[in-house]
Amino acid sequence: MDIALAVNDWFVAHRRDLPWRREGFGAWGILVSEIMLQQTPVVRVVPRLAQWLERWPTPAALAASPPAEAVRAWDRLGYPRRALNLHAAAVAIAERHGGVVPASVDDLLALPGIGDYTARAVAAFAYGERHPVVDTNVRRVIARAVLGQAVAGPPSTRRDLAAMEALLPESLPDARLFNAGMMELGALVCTARAPRCDECPLASACAWRAAGYPEYDGPRAAVQKKFEGSDRQVRGLIMAELRASDIPVTASEISTVWPDATQRDRALAGLLADGLVVAVDGGYELPR
Q1: CA distance 287 to 191
Q2: 40 or 172, higher pLDDT
Q3: How far, in Å, CA of 254 to CA of 268, rounded?
Q4: Helices 81-96, 67-74: inter-axial angle, 10-degree rounding
Q5: What would the mean pLDDT of 96-116 be, rounded to a whole number?
Q6: What is the per-residue pLDDT across 215-226, written as a single tens digit (0 to 9) for each?
Q7: Is 54 exposed, middle or buried (0-12, 13-18, 19+ CB in 10 A)?
C-alpha cells in the first residue's frame, strides 16, 4: 500500500473544516494557531484564535501592544508563557523580517519561543515547503502502522523526523497534504485510547493490527501530572486574579486564591521567574 496516497485520499474526504486550513489563511495566523494548539484542544483554540487575529491581524500589531495585553488575551488557554513567547516572536518578526513571518525553518527557529515542530509546521503549512512535521498524533500513527507498536514511546527528534521523512511524498502539494493528513488521522481515527481501526485507511497495511494488537512493553514517555491540586492549577488561579485587574494585586489578595501558603508562594515565585508576573509597589501585575 502507498501510505501517503491512502492518507491523502482519506484526508481530502474527511478533514475537519478548521480556520487554519482555509484558503487565504496567512502565515501569521498559522503561526498563532500552532502555538495555541500546543497542549490545548482544538475546540478551545478556534474561538480564541479568531479573537486574537481580529485584535492583532499582523505581527506588527501585536508587537506594538504591551506583553501584558497578550497574556491577558490568552485568558485560560493554559501555559501562559506561550503568550509571552508569541509576543516576543512578533517583536522579532517586526524588527528583523519587516513584519512578515519568515519561510525558512532556520529563520523560524531563530524566533523567540519557536521550537522545531512549530518552525517546520509553519514552513510546511504556510509556505508549502517540504518538511516532515511530527506531532504526537503522527508519532502514534507511524508507531502502529509502520513499526507495529501500540505506543510510540519517548520522543526522539532525529528518529521521528527520519521516520516521517521516509513516508513523505516528493511533490510539495502532496507532502503538505500528507503532513496534515497524518495529524488528522491520529486525532480522529488512530486515537490513543480507542482506535477506530474499521474506519482507518491504513487498516489493511497496519503492522500493529496484522500482529494482533500486541501490548507495548518498551520505554514510555513521562506521564503528565494531574492538574487538580498541582502547582499549575495554583499558577492559573494567580494569573486569573492578575488578568482581571487593571491595578496591582496585593499580596493579601493573592493569599485568598489558594489555602496552602507554601504551594502558593512556590507558584508565585515560579511566575515571577518566568516573567509572567512582575513585582511592583503595591503588589504584583502582568508584565508591561
Answers
A1: 39
A2: 172
A3: 9
A4: 140
A5: 96
A6: 987 777 665 667
A7: exposed
Greatest Cα-to-Cα distance within the chain, rounded to the nearest angstrom = 66
Q: Cβ–Cβ contacts within 10 Å for residue 65, how many?
A: 15
Indicate which CATH number applies to the domain containing 198. 1.10.1670.10
pLDDT at 223: 59
Q: How far is Cα 162 from Cα 57, in angstroms, rounded to an integer?
A: 35
- The one catalytic residue in 23, 34, 170, 285 is 34
Tell me the percentage of the chain whose pLDDT exceeds 90.
Answer: 70
Q: What is the DSSP string of 109-151?
A: HTSTT--HHHHHHHHHHHH--------HHHHHHHHHHTT--SS
End-to-end, the C-alpha distance of the chain in Å comes to 55
Q: What is the pLDDT of residues 152-173, one digit of tens each?
A: 988 899 999 999 999 999 999 9
| Helix H or strand E encompassing 279 | strand 278-280
Closest CA to 118 of 77, 73, 88, 86: 86
HSE-up of 169 (CA within 13 Å, CB side)?
Answer: 21
Give the range of the structural domain holding residue 279, as residue numbers without chain letter. 231-285
Number of compact structural domains in the chain: 3
- 58 near 28, Cβ under 8 Å? yes
In which residue are the cell numbers 474561538 written?
A: 47
The 3-state DSSP class for residue 259 equals coil
SS3 category, 219: coil
Identify any residues that bridge with 249 across adjacent strands, giving them in sequence order.
Answer: 284
Shared domain check, 152 and 121: no
Residue 64 amino acid letter:
A
Is 151 within 8 Å of 220 (Cβ atoms)? yes
In the residue annotation, 34 being an active-site residue is answered as: yes
